[in-house]
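BUG: 3D viewer hangs when loading the predicted structure for this chain

Environment: internal workstation, default settings.
Expected: structure renders.
Actual: progress bar stalls at 90%.

Input used:
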Amino acid sequence: MKMNRRGFIKACGFMAGYAVLGVNLTKEAVASSMNFVGLRQKSVYDADAKIYKVRKSQDNPMIAKIYDHKDGFLHEGPCGHMSHHLLHTHYVDRSARLAALKAKGFKFNL
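Structure tokens produced before the viewer hung:
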């Protein structure tokens, strides 16, 4: 089993809390922290609902205007050639150049 540093520290914290406080207090502490996370999520979603009038991109009037069939910039539609060309990324394989540089003795800190 592999464990990163953060997971190890978390596990040690839970074990120490369990050893010091006992089962019931540890359960209550975990439950209260999960309750806090739930309240925080609810407050973030509620704030977003109050602040942002348009929460979905397909409902955004500016996006609808861009894809308008009469005079929109991307009048071909969401899957048209121009939108694909402008809005999608392209993969370029550079592993051969990287291997060539490593063969010449370059060292990388990745």
